[in-house]
């Protein structure tokens, strides 16, 4: 079934605009959901050649929720009250965010048919705020890759360029948002798994300070990781972050109240950066940044400067090799052994990248104790703190490369071309992304915002890095970047 022009426009509405139309009575949640489901039917395609963003679509359950939301909005209008923040908004949840009674396999054959006993905390928060979970999104096995494909679910592709990956591990979420198949989406991030797909799909992704958004034990105790929101706008991301945030009984590391992470006066767009001192680090040490990524990042910095920000060049003593050694030493003490234990006896069924991750993590941590790993973390954290002294935020690219191949395994690393045109081989393809240092410094909030389009037609992104727990500043700067950066229409309007 093809969408009419008006229906197609509905699928690119942001949540704030949809709420305004619900409030006025010009649009009903069931109409938005119907348009979204039609968009999925017309755009998602199959696992062989399509976008393939979902593990399942929950159409019947979602339609029942939307009908209830229609009634609740009508009652709210009659009573003059404001309904819950996400009432009637279609939300796609990452498959790892379990829904009670439904499968939660994380793409692993060993978990095929396993059912979630209870809602994941972020699912609980979405439903509690009135969100309609209409679909569940793909990820690589155990969310351990920056591409999104698996034997279980096939290849997920980037709506902007079907030869490209939407990134990972929350690639299905980014693809769904960019293609107009969801209004909001949940994600998770242990080395960039929210920000990388945001960067590659022209969407917005937020890595909150560790503990700000509750996770699911026991791996919620890994201080590199965190669950979070993705959306098509900065304001929607802030709205969604507010819903997801705050203390939850199941996660003893969670803290704070459920509130949007924005300044008291709200987001001011370009006016909000006047007088701010923003550091600029295009290479974060020695990342081989592609020419178009560099150009788009520098263009964003120039626009912020024209809006009244003070741009301060920042040099960091980092190398991709040291960052990789630090992060994989950490993974070798927590995530790697957990994955090895879970998949024991089914190694022959794993995707190649999963087995390599387990092996890489074990090799990197060999001879490095957990206290020594903590010391490696502390060194990177201290260097970042020193570089950011006297600054309000730091600006850096989200990805160093223009794209990853949709079905790529990158078992032998990745060849890339830096901004000077030199070919550079990175031993591990994770080194093509500039996100993991801020999982080491995981109390720092980080927002990835679109910065332009690369030479291969895939979006690029910039990260806004804040001081520990200073969420408001990264959203203020992110809103300014969004206003100042011209982006083409989402591919939902072009297909």
Secondary structure layout:
Elements: H1 5-10, H2 15-24, H3 29-43, E1 54-57, H4 59-79, E2 90-94, H5 121-128, E3 132-137, E4 149-150, E5 154-155, H6 171-178, E6 184-189, H7 195-201, E7 204-207, E8 226-231, H8 234-244, E9 277-280, H9 291-306, E10 310-313, H10 320-331, H11 335-343, H12 352-365, H13 370-387, E11 393-397, E12 414-417, E13 423-426, H14 437-440, E14 446-453, E15 459-466, H15 471-484
Parallel strand pairs: 2-3, 2-6, 9-10, 9-11
Antiparallel strand pairs: 1-3, 4-5, 6-8, 7-8, 7-14, 11-15, 12-13, 14-15
Helix pairs in contact: 3-4, 6-7, 10-12, 10-13, 11-12
SSE class: alpha/beta
Mean of pLDDT: 96
Distance between the termini: 14 Å
Helix content: 25-40%
Q: What coarse outline follows from CA principal-axis ratios?
A: globular
How much of the sequence lies in strands comes to: 5-15%
Lateral arrangement of strands in the main beta sheet = 1-3-2-6-8-7-14-15-11-9-10
SSE order:
HHHEHEHEEEHEHEEHEHEHHHHEEEHEEH
Give the low-confidence spans.
1-5
Q: How many extended strands? A: 15
Radius of gyration: 21 Å
């Amino acid at each position: 079934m093809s969408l009419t022009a008006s229906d197609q426009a509905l699928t690119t509405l942001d949540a704030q605009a949809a709420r305004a139309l619900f409030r006025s009575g010009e649009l009903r949640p069931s109409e938005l959901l119907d348009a979204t489901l039609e968009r999925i039917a017309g755009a998602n395609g199959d696992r062989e050649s399509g976008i393939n963003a979902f593990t399942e679509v929950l159409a019947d359950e979602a339609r029942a929720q939307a009908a209830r939301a229609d009634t609740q909005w009508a009652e709210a209008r009659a009573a003059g009250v404001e309904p819950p923040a996400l009432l009637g908004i279609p939300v796609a949840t990452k498959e790892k965010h379990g829904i009670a009674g439904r499968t939660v396999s994380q793409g692993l054959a060993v978990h095929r048919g396993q059912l979630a006993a209870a809602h994941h905390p972020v699912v609980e928060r979405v439903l509690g705020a009135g969100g309609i979970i209409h679909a569940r999104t793909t990820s690589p096995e155990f969310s351990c890759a920056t591409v999104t494909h698996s034997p279980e679910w096939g290849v997920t592709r980037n709506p902007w360029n079907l030869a490209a990956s939407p990134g990972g591990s929350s690639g299905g979420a980014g693809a769904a948002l960019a293609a107009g198949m969801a209004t909001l989406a949940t994600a998770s991030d242990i080395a960039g798994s929210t920000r990388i797909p945001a960067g590659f799909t022209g969407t917005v992704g937020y890595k909150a300070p560790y503990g700000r958004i509750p996770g699911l034990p026991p791996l919620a105790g890994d201080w590199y990781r965190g669950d979070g929101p993705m959306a098509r706008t900065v304001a929607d991301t802030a709205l969604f972050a507010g819903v997801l945030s705050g203390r939850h009984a199941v996660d003893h590391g969670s803290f704070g109240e459920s509130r949007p992470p924005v300044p008291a006066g709200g987001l001011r767009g370009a006016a909000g950066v006047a007088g701010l001192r923003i550091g600029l680090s295009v290479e974060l040490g020695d990342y081989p940044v592609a020419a178009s990524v560099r150009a788009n990042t520098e263009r964003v910095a120039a626009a912020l400067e024209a809006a009244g920000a003070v741009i301060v060049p920042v040099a960091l003593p980092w190398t991709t090799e040291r960052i990789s050694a630090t992060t994989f030493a950490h993974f070798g003490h927590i995530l790697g052994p957990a994955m090895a234990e879970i998949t024991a006896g089914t190694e022959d069924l794993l995707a190649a990248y999963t087995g390599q991750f387990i092996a890489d993590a074990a090799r990197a941590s060999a001879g490095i104790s957990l206290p020594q790993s903590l010391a490696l973390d502390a060194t990177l954290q201290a260097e970042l703190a020193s570089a950011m002294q006297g600054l309000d935020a730091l600006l850096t690219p989200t990805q160093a490369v223009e794209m990853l191949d949709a079905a790529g395994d990158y078992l032998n690393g990745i060849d890339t071309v830096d901004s000077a045109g030199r070919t550079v081989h990175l031993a591990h393809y994770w080194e093509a992304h500039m996100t993991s240092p801020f999982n080491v410094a995981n109390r720092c909030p980080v927002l990835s915002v679109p910065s332009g389009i690369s030479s291969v037609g895939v979006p690029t992104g910039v990260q806004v890095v804040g001081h520990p727990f200073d969420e408001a500043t990264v959203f203020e700067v992110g809103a300014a970047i969004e206003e100042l950066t011209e982006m083409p229409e989402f591919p939902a309007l072009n297909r």
